[in-house]
Amino acid sequence: PTDTGSGSGTTIFTEMTALAQRTGAVNLGQGFPDTDGPPAMLEAARTAIAAGANQYPPLAGLPELREAIVAQRALRYGTHYDPDTEVLVTTGATEALAAALLAHCAPDDEVIVFEPYYDSYAASIALARGRRRVVPMRPDATGRFGFDPDDLSAAVSRRSRVLLLNSPHNPTGTIFNAEELAAIATCCRRNDLVAVTDEVYEYLTYDGAVHTPLATLPGMRERTLSVSSAGKTFSATGWKVGWVCGPAHLVEPVRRVKQYLTFASGTAFQVAVAQALATQQPWVRAQAARLQANRDRLRTGLVATGLTPYVCQGTYFLQADIRPLGVADGIRFCRELPHRVGVAAIPSAVFYDDPADGLPIVRFVFCKEPQVLDEAARRLADLT
Ligand code: PMP
Ligand code: GLN
Questions:
Q1: Is this entry keyworded Cell cycle (predicted)?
Q2: Nearest one of 349, 351, 359 to 123, comparing CA atoms
Q3: Residues 42-48, mean pLDDT to the nearest whole number
Q4: What pLDDT does residue 8 have?
Q5: Residues 6 or more apart from 166 whose CB is under 8 A from it?
Q6: Nearest-angstrom CA–CA distance, 93 and 309
C-alpha cells in the first residue's frame, strides 16, 4: 500500500515514478530535475574519483565541505558555526532529519509539524516512537498557504519536544514570512522546543521572496538544527549530500546517531559539493530564475485546463485543486492520470494525517525542461 504516515508502505514517489515509467507518462510527480547541475561540479566529482577520493571520509564530513557550508551560511544569513563541532555532513537531508529526530525525540515525545508535511517526517517520527502533532496550513484569499498561530498554540502541550519546520515548503510552495517565523520562534522559546528546520529549497525562491532561517531569529540559534542539502540547490538529487548545522550540544547527539546509521557517505561528491558551494552561486541564481520561468509556464498550462494553481513562492512544486475538472479524489485521479492522458502527478492527500483533508489537491513539479512542461500541458488539455 502507498504510505500515508505509518512509515511502512511504499512511498508515493516510488509508486508514481514506476507508474510513469510503465505508461510512458510525462513525470511531474517525483521532485527531481531532468537536467544536471553545474558542469564544473560534475567535473570536480570525476576529478576527485580519479585522484583517489574513494574511501571513507571523516564521520562528520570532509573539513573542506564543512568549511564551505559555514562560509555560505555566514555570507547569506550572517549566522556563524564552528565547522568542527557545529556542522555534520549527512547522507542527504533525509538522514539529517531522521538522525535529528532519533537524537532529540524520546518515545512519546511530541513533534509539531505543519500539515501538509513531507512524507519522510511521519516515518522518522514513527521510528523515534514520537507522536506527531499537526498544525494545519490553509490557503488564504490569494491562494497562499499559511497557518493560524492559534492552531500552533493548540498543537503544543507539555509533551512537545521538537518543532519541525520546512520552508520553503513542500508541497505548498509557501515561504514562511517574518510574522509566521516570529510566532514559531516565540512558541519554541516559550515551550523550550528544539527546532529542526528543513531548508532544502533555501535557494529556490521566486519573485524576490526571501528565505529567512528560523535560527536567525532572537534566541533561536541555540535551539535550532538547520538542515539542508546539495540535491535541490545543485540539481544533484542522486548525490545525497546533506548537512545539519546547530549548537554543539544539539549536533553532538545527532552525530552519535548518524555514526551507526551510515557512518559517512560519498567522499567524491563531498569534494565536488564543497567546490560548488564556494564557486557556483551564479549558476544557482540562474537556475532559480529558470525554475521561476518554468513555474509560470506550468501555471499557464494548468490554467488552460481549467485549474487555478495555488501561490508558489519557492520549491519545485505547484499545487492545484482538481474539483474544477469535476473530480474530487486526488489519489484516484493521480493513479488514473498516466493511463488517461500520459501525465504523472502526486496526490497531496499523502502529506496529511487524514488524507481526506487534502483529497482534491494535486501536486505537479516544474523542475523540468520547458518543452517537457509544454508537452504535459498539451496532454492535460485532453482532460477537458
Ligand atoms: N525535505 C524535503 C522538504 C524534500 O522535498 C526532500 C526531497 N528532496 C528532502 C527533504 C530530502 O532531501 P535529500 O534528497 O537531500 O535527502
Ligand atoms: N523530495 C522529492 C519530492 O517531494 C522526492 C524524494 C523522494 O523520492 N523520496 O518529490
A1: no
A2: 351
A3: 98
A4: 54
A5: 114, 117, 118, 197, 198, 199
A6: 28
C-alpha grid cell, residue 203: 535557494
Going along the chain from its start, the domains and CATH numbers come out as: 12-36+282-383 (3.90.1150.10), 39-280 (3.40.640.10)
Q: What is the DSSP string of 198-263?
A: E-TTTT-B-TT-----GGGSTTTGGGEEEEEEHHHHTT-TTT-EEEEE--HHHHHHHHHHHHHHTS
Pairwise CA distance, residues 66 & 165, whole Å: 23
For residue range 182-204, what is the model confidence (pLDDT) as tens digits? Answer: 999 999 999 999 999 999 999 99
The finding on whether 171 has its CB within 6 A of some atom of ligand 1 is no
CA distance 340 to 382: 9
With the CA atoms of 205, 169, 328 and 5 taken in that order, what torsion angle do they form, in degrees rounded to the nearest 10? Answer: 150
103 three-class SS: helix
Read off the DSSP letter of residue 355. G
Q: How far is the CA of 93 from the centre of ligand 1 (A)?
A: 6
Ligand 2 geometric centre to CA of 32 (Å): 7
What is d(CA 59, CA 198) in angstroms, rounded to the nearest whole number? 21
Q: Which of 14, 27, 30 to mutate to test the pocket of ligand 2 (most atoms within 8 A of CB)?
A: 30
* Cell 510566532, located at residue: 183
- Taking the C-alpha atoms of residue 8 and residue 11, their distance in angstroms, rounded to an integer, is 9
Nearest alpha-carbon partner for 131 in 152, 160, 173, 154? 160
ipTM of the complex: 0.97
Cell 520561468, located at residue: 293
Please report the pLDDT score of residue 2 as a whole number. Answer: 47
Which amino acid type is present at position 238?
G
pTM of the model: 0.96
- Is 80 exceeded by the pLDDT of residue 5? no
Which pLDDT band holds residue 10 (cuts at 50, 70, 90)?
confident
**Residue burial 40-69, b: 16+ Cβ < 10 Å; e: rest:** ebeebbeebeeeebeeebeebbbebbbbbb
User: Which of the pair, 2 or 113, is modelled with greater confidence?
Assistant: 113
Q: Which ligand is nearest to the CA of 229?
A: 1
